[in-house]
Amino acid sequence: MKPAALAALLAVALAGCASQSVSIRRVPSEHPAAENAAAAESAAAFAAAAALAAEGETDRSVREAKPAPPPITPADAPSMATYDPFERLNRFTYRFNARFDEAVFLPVSNVYRRIPSPIRSGVHNFFGNLSEVDSVINYSLQWRLKLGVRSLGRFVINSTLGLGGLFDVAAKFKLPGAPTGASTTLAKWGVHPGPYLVIPLLGPSTLRDGFGFLADYGTSYAIDIGQLYRGNVSWWLGGTNAVDQRANIDFRYYSTGSPFEYENVRFLYVRKRLIEDAGLRGK
Amino acid sequence: MLSAAAFANGAEPDAPPIAAPAVPPVAAPAAPAAPAAPAAPPVAPSDAPPVAAPAAPGPATGLAGSAGLRATVFGTPPQNMAPMPSRVPLLEINIAMPWARPVPDVFWFDRTLRVWLSAQHGPAPLAIVISGTGSDGNTSKLSILRGALYGAGYHVLTVPSPTFPGFIVSASSTGVAGDLMQDSRDLYAALQQIVVHLPRRIRITDIDVLGYSLGGANAAVVKSIDGTEGKLKIHRAVMIDPPVSLFASVGRLDKLFAVSIGSGDEAIEILYRKLYAELANLYRASDRVQIDESFLLGAAASALRTDEEFSAAIALAFRLDLVDMFFAGDLYARTGVVVDPNHPPKVSDSLEEAQRILRNKPFSEYFARVFAPYYLKQRPGSTSASLIADSRLDIIGDSLRDSPDYYAQANSDDLILDKRELTWLRDTLGSRIAVYDHGGHLGNIGERQQVSDMLDMLAGRWPGAAQ
């Protein structure tokens, strides 16, 4: 049944480009009043933080006894061209992902977003809480024990007080989430990202991060909390997780209309990962 | 996009402009009063192919000073926003145009035109809002205008600019964007298709059209075309921060790129390396475990400090849009700048090299190598000077002057205008223009005053008391 379902999804994805003169679909509503209020609030918080930082700048620099690593200079920036030996395959996968997203992921996540937001954030928190286990393991492997303890604390608090992870109580105790994974561990160990890789259904990545993803999944599968990863519910759960993830990513394939979107996404994604790597070495 | 209000420093509306004062009145390339007819004396012998590119008169930053540049980048601070409705429903409409040509391989995803509609329950007037240069029909600026208009009781239809690649591929009759009249004709035809295909439950009592930046000029021209053809019966048009001369405005942005970034691949590489190092250091100093939107917001606020840096950000954003338009034009017009007309790229081919070449090219090169060659062939008897004149708002100058249904909002520190162009707008529209003393280019969209004036104009309540 599972392969059949997958085949059906693939067929829908590939048929997504079938021509039709007009198609109209409902997409999530906008909430400008609430968004403005939130933006005003965060702008105020941002200004306050900036003022505070400016005030405390001098004594913080005194406090920081730890020798700072040499600053990253413009000469350290990677070339503007990106190493992409799998380009033909990557482009094919990118196109497939775009069609799949348009035909399956996006419509489903648009429906999902009609569910009242408290329920959705419960779902989101639930999956976030499950991933804390992997974060604890990886923070330990990265020898960032403080963050590992934080993740562990979050997992314990949210699994109990947060009713199995449905509520992020820990964040209210000033323990905000900071997920990590095997790709960051590999980076911390000095593994270079390697070539750019577009992973089917998942999107932009690198060879290293692709292995990291497999390792994260393998870890969860091996631990199998509450038999959620190997039991009968695993397909439902995996699907819900994927839809929840998608609904929280504000990206639409080819909304730029640009013929260079593949190049642009590749450029930005790889630079983002390299900066995160460079930051990791300084921490 | 950015809303770091703290940096939009609204406290100094009279910041001394870094721009030089008025342009000497002599030897200006195209006087505001110049007739649109091709009788304008050509500067160079007309049909010798490397055509003279349009020159940008005046300073690169137009009328903008420091505050204008900052407002342009940061937009309206959230606390200055007009009241907005709590919920705006949204429909996405994808529509194929009957006249669309075969879609080039590399544009496979742009087969249909995508527009967005927010419909009221009962009968209501329809406000059609046109996006700015190179932009799609769902930008953050459009989202603000949609909220304001929907809240005031309009059905709101937001559409891309005719210079957006998705429009060029799915709805343009030429593939070569940039001609004000031709682009607006294509847009007018597309709008008719869209309006007849709207869901039947939507009852429209009246149609008005608006646009920001280049979309503002498109809106006015669309209304004037409708004035003779009468297919949509558009009532009023409101232009928000429109250019007066397309090519003078983009010429200014070319110049802005040259003075704030430089020219050639090297200049772009230097900017990129500088930005990369700056972001990497900021990220390392932060206690974040990954780069996210709030980090980037803070980074932008601390990376952008000087006028030059704000100028670079504005010029770069424009250049990135231009690259797409240039590529599409080159492909359709078969001009061979980066696309071999006989072997156009396939869907799996790398376009990195084409992009690298095009990002170094200013608009003047698009004009000289794609736009002018194409249109000079299409319009026998035209010259490059006449093409430039044809893309000035004064092609509809009489309508703007005489009809009570055209309105405009402009900022006296807009970087795409110079003094004479702003004066031309004022003289032409008389009391039907509101000029604000701040906002730069589009940096006050959504502000209380801007929104309430816009709604007054659309509803015919505008008192016409602007000085």
Count of DSSP E strands of chain B?
Answer: 8
Biggest beta sheet attributes of chain A: 2 strands, antiparallel
The chain-level structural class of chain B is alpha/beta
| Count of DSSP H/I helices of chain B | 15
Give the uncertain stretches of chain A in residue-range form.
Answer: 58-65
Outline type of chain B: globular
Residues in helix, % of chain B: 40-55%
Give, in spatial order, the strands making up the sheet with the most strands of chain B. 1-2-4-3-5-6-7-8
Please state the second-level CATH architecture of one domain in chain B: 3-Layer(aba) Sandwich
How far is the N terminus from the C terminus of chain A? 48 Å
Task: For the structure shown, list the relevant keywords.
heterodimer, A: 283 residues, mainly alpha, two-stranded antiparallel ribbon, 10 helices, B: 467 residues, alpha/beta, Rossmann fold, eight-stranded mixed beta sheet, globular, disordered N terminus
Would you give an account of this structure?
The complex is a heterodimer of chains A (283) and B (467). Among the domains of chain A are: 86-115 and 181-283, no CATH class; 119-180, no CATH class. Helices cover 62% and strands 6% of the residues of chain A. Chain A is mostly helical and 283 residues long. Chain A is globular, with a radius of gyration of 21 Å. Chain A starts with a helix and ends with a helix. Chain B is 41% helix and 11% strand. Chain B contains 15 helices and 8 strands. Chain B has helices at residues 66-74, 140-151, 165-170, 180-196, 214-229, 246-260, 264-285, 293-303, 307-333, 352-358, 363-378, 384-390, 397-402, 419-429, 448-458; strands at residues 88-95, 113-118, 124-130, 155-159, 204-212, 234-240, 406-411, 433-436. Chain B has an 8-stranded mixed beta sheet, with helices on both faces. In chain B, strand 5 (204-212), helix 5 and strand 6 (234-240) form a beta-alpha-beta unit. Strand 1 (22-30) of chain A pairs antiparallel with strand 1 (88-95) of chain B, so a sheet runs across the interface.
